[in-house]
Amino acid sequence: MNNPITEKLHADRLIKMALEEDISNEDITTNAVMPGYKKGTVDLIAKQNGVICGLNVFARTFTLLDENTVVELFKEEGDEVKNGEHIAKVTGDIRVLLSGERTALNYLQRMSGIATYTRRVVKLLEGCKTKLLDTRKTTPNMRIFEKYAVKVGGGVNHRYNLSDGILLKDNHIGAAGSVAAAVKAAREYAPFVRKIEVEVENLDMCREAVEAGADIIMLDNMSVEDMTAAVKLIDGRALTECSGNVTEGNIENIKKTGVDYVSSGALTHSAPILDLSLKNLHPID
What we know:
CATH architecture of the largest domain: Alpha-Beta Barrel
Strand order of the largest sheet: 6-11-10-9-8-7
Number of helices: 12
Radius of gyration: 23 Å
Number of strands: 12
Number of domains: 2
CATH topology of the largest domain: TIM Barrel
Helix content: 40-55%
Structural class: alpha/beta
Order of helices and strands: HHHEEHEEEHEHEHHEHEHEHEHE
Strand content: 15-25%
């Protein structure tokens, strides 16, 4: 399976930066116990149930250290794994296996945790039209990995960065003077192919956004009752998105409002890691 992250978004540079952060000069511990080449193997084991994500990033971490490293995968991206299940085997220079272990696991555990949490929330939305979106609330230098994990978990990516789409939030509206003024300025500045999304906090702002011709209206931190009224007010004239403190606990009420999308920063900023471990490292002939 080709890895869209490495091929399309040049993740090698970021993985190298992570390796350099962990090995600024040398891996002094590994070099002390393993001063020369010795071939070995180690097993990747799940220590929790969840969704596995980031296997190609995991493998690439080792092959960047030594292209002769062989990673045998027993699962595919997005597969569910069980506690104790054997997920992969890594074979190569023992020094590489030891030095790359933590960085490789950091990526895999983080991405698998996001995919696992995302899938749980997506399942809560089954049976309705509402789609789950991520946000820009990502870890610095981890956005491409974290947003990829959301997709593997079944979610949908919102804009990737500030160059990727127009989203007029409260401070943009404050700077422009009003919702209408902000939409007008965005319409005049941006290419005509760009959609304009506006964040609103109450029904008056919602009405102004509709009248200004917003393409997407984000209902931010509004009550379920107000969101329901806003969707009725908009009446299909714009796409609708719910945002603000969206969690597993309140998703059931939110989906009853009829919004087209629900965005959740928790997918990337609050998902716990999936516990995984490299075990049984030993030399082989």
